[in-house]
Every structure is written in C-alpha cells, then in structure tokens.
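In this supplementary section we document a worked example of the pipeline. Step one takes a protein sequence of length 493 as its only input; no multiple sequence alignment statistics are reported here. Step two produces a three-dimensional model, which step three serialises into structure tokens for compact storage. The input and output of this example are shown verbatim.
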Amino acid sequence: MLRKIRITLAAVMLIGITWLFLDFTGTAHCWLGWMAKVQLLEAVLALNVVVIAALVALTLIFGRIYCSVVCPLGIMQDLFGWFGKKAKKNRYTYSKQKHALRMAFFTFMLILIVLGGGTIVQLLAPYSAFGRIATMMLQPIWIAGNNMLAAIAEHYDSYAFYSVDVWLRSLPVLLIASATLVLLAVLAWRNGRTYCNTICPVGTLLSVFAKFSWLKVRFDVDKCKNCSLCTKNCKASCIDFKTHTVDYTRCVVCGDCIESCKFGALKYGRNTQSTQTSQNSPASGASRRTFLLSSALLATAAMAQKKDKIMDGGLAEIEDKVAPERQTPLTPPGSLSAQNMAQHCTGCQLCVSECPNQVLRPSGDVWHLMQPVMSYERGYCRPECNRCSEVCPAGAIKPISHEVKVSTQIGHAVWIKKNCIPLTDGVECGNCARHCPSGAIEMVPSDPDDDTSPYVPAVNEARCIGCGACENLCPARPYSAIYVEGHEVHKEV
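The serialised model returned by step three reads:
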C-alpha cells in the first residue's frame, strides 16, 4: 500500500510539473503553480518560510519522501530505474555512503558561489535540471502537436486551437538539457539514485533531518531470512541485509524493499521494542551540511535564435532581426536588479517557457548561464502581461502588478542614426513613436533649422520604461534603428 500511494502521488506531481513547463496558455499555472513553489531549493531562495517549515516537518515525520514524491527529477530517475529493473531484476547492491565525495561537492560549490561563479551549482540543482529538460526538449514537441491540431481545426472553421511559433531559444541550453537527460538516464538505469545520494544539494540537506524521522523502514530481525531481496531492490543502495541496517540519510521511502520482502521482515513505522534499528550513517553532525542554505544559485546559458523566413503578402522576403549588442542585459520587471536575479535565479526556465510574448530567453553570458534575459526580436514586453512574475518560484522575479509594471523602468531606448529609414531610405516612418505605450518618443526634424527635413525619433529617457515596443516594431533590418539598453537596477518612473 505504501508503494502504491507513493507512485500515485509521484505520478500526479510529475505530470503536473511537466504540464507547467509545457503549457503556453497560462492555464496550468492557475491550478498547479503551487507545485513549483514547494520545491525546496526555490523556497529557500525565495525565503518562503511556510514551505521550508512544511518540508522540514514532512521529512522529520515521514523521512525523505520529498525526493520520491515531490522532486520531479527524483521521480524521473525512479522511472528510468523502473525500466532498468524490467531489463534486469534484483540489480542493486548495498554501498556505503560516500560522505567525503558529498562534502567535496559542497565545498566546491560553495567556493564557486563566493567567487560569483555559480553556474555549475545551478547545473546541479534538481528542479532546474528537470525544467531545462521539459522546456528545451519536450515543449517544442508539445507545441508542434498543438499546431497540427490547430491546422486541422482551421480546416473545419474551428478556433479551438491556435498556432504558436516553434523556435530554438538557445542551442547551448538544449545541449545542456540533452546531456543532463542522458547522464541521469544512464545513472538511474544502472545504479538507481546515484545523483540524489552523491551530488544533489537538496538530497544532502534533507538527509540531515531524515536521520531523525519519526516513521522509518525498519527490520524485524526475527522474521528476516537474509535472502537479500531488500538490498537487491533498493535503488538508493542503503539497505545492508547482513547487519539489518538502513541508512536513513539515503532512504527515500519508495517502498520497493517492503514489497520485495517475502517474509514481512521490513515495516514502515515508528520504533517498537520488537524491531531493531540502526543507522549506517557517518558520525558527522548536521551542522557541516546545513551551509547549503546559503547557496544562492546563480543562473544560466544561451544564445542567439534563428527564426523562419516569413513573407510579406507573398511578395517580399522579410529579413530576420538581429539582437543588438547591449552593454547591460535586460532583466524582467519584478526582478529588481541584475544582482537580485543572479542571487535568486536557479535557471529552471519556467518563466522562459511561460512568456507569451517570446521575449525571455536564456542568457549566453557564461557567468549568468541560463539566467533569463529579455530581447525583442520576436516580440516586446507588453504592459498588461506579468506572467513571469507570477510563475517564478525562487524570488528572482518578484510578483508585480500591472500598475507597477507600467511605471517600472528596466531600461531606456537608444536611437541609432545610421539605421533609421527616414535617413537611409528617404521615407516617412514614426513606428516607434506611434507604438510607444509610455509616450517617451516623439518625432522631430533631423535638422533643427529645417522643418522640412526627415523626421526622426527623440527619446525622453525619463519616461521610457524599456518595454521594447519601439525596437520590435522598427522596420529597419537586420538591426533596428532604436533598441533598449538595460539598467542594472530598476526604478519607478
């Protein structure tokens, strides 16, 4: 029964979180947004005290069920491990905890954080790793299927579905996600939960509390026949049938050992006089590992995108826009500053996958690898949209209202004279001024002494909020004649 309950809850969690990353309509977040916010590392970075306390209490009562019920990467590894067991039964063996290796990983990650190079730490964050896999590998397939249904619906004059562009947000992040998936699949297929019990920072933190959990998997020595089936079916390699011990720092309470025992020698419950318990865990205290709470994961990888060629009425080919060289990257409204983004973002890509305007994409800066940044080749940050601030689970993008967003300055527009078509092509334009939602752009004569000279844009930086409407809608190709330069710290105007 324990195993069936665990599998049911895990399936609900895995499907729900996967849908969060695949959904591009915003519907899933209304019902399932809490699933992202109950991830431990993200809750720590967001200082979500309620969630942290609840997860610690859950672990102190039930053990490390978080890793097998809540964490999507842990559930995905269980799925790969299940296929591995189908290929070869009783494939696991007991192994001692690699405490020194764990501490080496933590020490290395802590040094990187102190030095401001937390990219590697971010790559190892479990929820973020799963998010990259879902966003970069699964969402394009999901959208392609949606577009096929949209084409069929359109044929029958139905608008039940609508088409969405499928585009590569970042080749580096796609490669990282693919490598992560292959590596975890191989490890889980062969050895079960190697990643969780050796590398994962969340698993290490929860192992501190799991040692003292109220409910545990325990041996009844009188019933045990030393058949070793419990050890051979433990994906965490934490059961030693010879000494009748369970390493509770690694046990994720999956229930496989209980189901495999034919003599009823293993039970999940609290300690009684008829059972024997011992822990095969190192004597080192919890204090040496709790420094994980200070690891604010730095962010994220990516790079240029290539759009499909489109045609203007079937008559002329429209050249793709090319991203400008911004001196300061643009971070979303609600992120407060580039520093806040770097300190809190785990690079899970949820905001990127949810952005309806195709403005967010992973950064290509090696020091902020996979951290979301804004660029306006495919759209602009519409004043009425605040979805990224609603979905961020780590506090990197704070919740922001529509009223505050339209007065938050994330950057300012900069005019590039050599690209402006009234000067290069001798035609009237004014697109940037017409579409500026804050009225920060007006058209003025290029020659102040000649009112008949071509009119060009003049930017009032004090009023500009950096939404990118001017840059996106500028007809100049491949480089816009006006682009947005980011601000390190956001302010209200």
